[in-house]
Amino acid sequence: MALRFEVRKTDPSGARLGRLITPHGVVDTPAFMPVGTAATVKGLTQQALEELGVQILLCNTYHLYLRPGHERIGRVGGLNHFMSWPRAILTDSGGYQVFSLAELREVSDAGVRFRSHLDGSEHLFTPEKAIDVQIALGADVLMALDECIEYPASHERARAAAGRTFEWARRSREHLAAHGSAAEQALFGIVQGGTYRELRQQNAEQLLELDFPGYAVGGLAVGEPHTLTCEMAAEVTARLPADRPRYLMGVGKPEDLADYVRLGIDLMDCVLPTRNARNGCLFTSQGRLLIKNARYAEDPRPLDEACTCLVCRSYSRAYLRHLFLAHEILAAVLHTHHNLHFYLDIMRRIREAIEFGDLAGFSAEFQARLEAEP
RNA sequence: UCCCCGGUAGCUCAACGGUAGAGCAUUCGGCUGUUAACCGAAGGGUUGUAGGUUCGAGUCCUACCCGGGGAG
Predict the structure, then answer these.
(1) Which of A64, A118, A135, A298 is surrounded by the most beta carbons within 10 Å?
(2) Residue A358 CB lies within 7 Å of the nucleic strand B
(3) Which of residues 190-229 of A touch strand B (CB under 7 A)?
(4) Contact predicate A169/A74, CB 8 Å
(5) Which residues contact A11 (CB under 8 A, 6 or more apart)?
(6) Interface pTM (ipTM) of the complex?
(7) 3-state DSSP call for residue A173?
(8) pLDDT tens-digit profile of A253-297?
(9) What pTM value is reported for the model?
(10) Distance, angstroms, CA A43 to C1' B32?
């Protein structure tokens, strides 16, 4: 088995403390996976990611297929070697691009026909193709191609997308098994169903029959209220086997991470810490800090006085604001470093809280600090 | 001293004689499996000055002021 998952402790809330054991090392869960779409977490070196304690990265099948090409990556030794990242990698299937590249694609039962956002060329992504690409990339965890829909979406549309996603999951699993890569690479199935409880339930139960080594909850955090995200995720996790990792795709805000963990989620990923960093939005224990605000022009304090990261130990808000307004590359580098440190620190403290049986205490303290006066 | 070109938002510049705009800058906001070092909103003008022509002038005419270039 490519992947082993051990639940070390389950909190009364439903939160799980665990270990995901991959061919490229152990991932302590619940874990946050930084997003490195094009085989890079924009602004950071792989060495910096290791130093930050990142144990698993998310990369994107569709983007790497287009550029530099999965076959090329395969020829030069696979994604880990190519990007010099020794730890675990999960590759997203391109399912999210079904949602985000809406004007550039056409979905059918066969698969998704994309027009490349780079050069306009046409490409057919089938579930099988997505697996082939991910086999070439060589990630530890593969995601089945799915259809992620917008919010709000009609029941009929959500039902159709969930059904298609299930059928694609079945084909993905078969294709991977036929290839024989299942020994090294673990495929996760994805539950869809929009914001409809019974669709989520049905889709989850259906997917269980395919017996995946891990399950993902997709199609959430696309604009619906947080409570609805939680409701849907809960609907799914309640039906998933306890001994398999659960991945809530594309979340979330710092203040929401513990909520998802309480629903029994083990893995999460989100572009917020990295993208917002580049756009000058810094996450701190006192809430969001928009570094371009004039009030920081001569502020000698670090971004977050409670933060121990390299950036907060060395640089003032005044300096970071200058770098950002001057469009200096270092602003993106330092901001990304800080935001990822912040996310990883939250996850570390959540794991400790589960271990010591005080997840509720952690959340209360966290919320109180976010609501405090900066 | 004369000739030519120019003077419009903080900056660089648009605007057939018909409601003065853009980019950047400034201020503020947004970003959830990255088409994103991105996107959006707001504030900001006696169009160098003073006259004139016209129903109506940033635009045409006159004088002056300022800047650049040329001639002597």
Answers:
(1) A64
(2) no
(3) 190, 216, 218-219, 221-222, 226
(4) no
(5) A17, A262, A354, A357, A359
(6) 0.94
(7) helix
(8) 999 999 999 999 999 999 999 999 999 999 999 999 999 999 999
(9) 0.96
(10) 19
